[in-house]
Amino acid sequence: MIGNKLLLVPGTLCDDRLWLPMLSTPAGLQLQTAFKMQHATIWQAQNRSLMMDAIATSDAEHLVGFSLGGYLLLSHLLSLTPEKASQIKSLVLIATSAGALTAEEQKIRQQTLSWLQHHQYHGMSQKRLSEFVHPSRLNDLTVTEPILQMDKELGHSVLLNQLTQTSNRRSLLDGLYQIRCPVLIIGAAADQKVPLTALELMAKRLPDARLVVLPHCGHMLPLEQPEQLALLLSSFYQSCGVVVSEA
Hints:
Largest sheet: 6 strands, parallel
Strand order of the largest sheet: 2-1-3-4-5-6
Distance between the termini: 14 Å
Radius of gyration: 17 Å
Number of helices: 11
Oligomer: single chain
Structural class: alpha/beta
Shape: globular
């Protein structure tokens, strides 16, 4: 019987399909024998409080967050009592920043929100897609199709809601010293959304953190590098005392 539980939290305009390529790799299948997988359905939440509830209602001891999902996990951990926080055994942050949005990011979000309030969103353009995916993978349908499918099916209402609810994002950096569990930070060298400096800042502030940066990869790391991500997770969890064996 699987005793370990792992909670996966996706990012903006993503759902559990974000994780399917990683979980389908050989190392991902091994992870599924070691953990009972749980998904925080933040894309269904109507406000930020309900997004946090989707995380807080989980009883998982191991947490994985991508982009916005990583920020929400950090917020959740910093809200826990010391007793509750001690029950968390590990945290993985993928393409995540603990910092506040920059003035430029705030400006772009406000422009996007204004546009969405007066126009119907018809999906991600190729130009927009190129901001999230490494140039070498833009013609790889195994990467781009899941992104475009989630974008189309979650659509206007989810994007508008998530941007509205999460644009007021304060810096969490000063509180990171309180997170005592082992943390694996995974970033992408060509990420246009989360710079390397943001990852390095988190790694310096967290008491027990390891930073890994994957080359030739953009922001959509779980879809661009699913095999490498699964191997990194497997190695990390074994270092945390979880037995990860062949499926």
